[in-house]
Amino acid sequence: MKSKTKNTTHKIVFAALMAAITCVMTIAIRIPSPTGGYLNMGDVAVLTSCWLLGPLWGSLAAASGSALADIFSGYFQYAPATFIIKGLMALLAWYIISLFGKDNKKTFVTLLGNLLAFILAEALMVGLYFVFEATVLQYGMGAAAGILGNTMQGITGILGAIIFTEILRRTKVKEKYIG
Question: Per mean pLDDT, which range of 35-49, 115-129, 150-164 is the poorest?
Fold first, then answer.
């Protein structure tokens, strides 16, 4: 029983850490987009969170860290949507990674699974932000101006997360500290 408590405590601590890292990576580099959003590096941490922590803690870390970054940056109108979108991104990525066997010993299969998961998660992000900006923020088709910036952010997130998760996989951080 003590081991399960320790495992849960480690996951909570790592989720808080990943939320903070997500927030900082989102705020550290901000390139404004035409629709009022901004290009950032936070998706590297969003995608890494799901890989590292699983569906529940990974999604919560991704969602809360990203939403806090919006709040701290003055993009209050985006925070609720960001919480939902980034949480769904992490959840979708985790699900696809789990289909490939997240702890598969074959590096190629693991990398292929991660790549597919991250691409689909970023495509979801681009689509959901477009819908949010077009409908809730009432930009209409003007929201299409944000697609390129969100796509560039997605590509950056994919490349960064592939590199970062591979480093973490090889150093066995998950096995050593999270369980």
Answer: 35-49
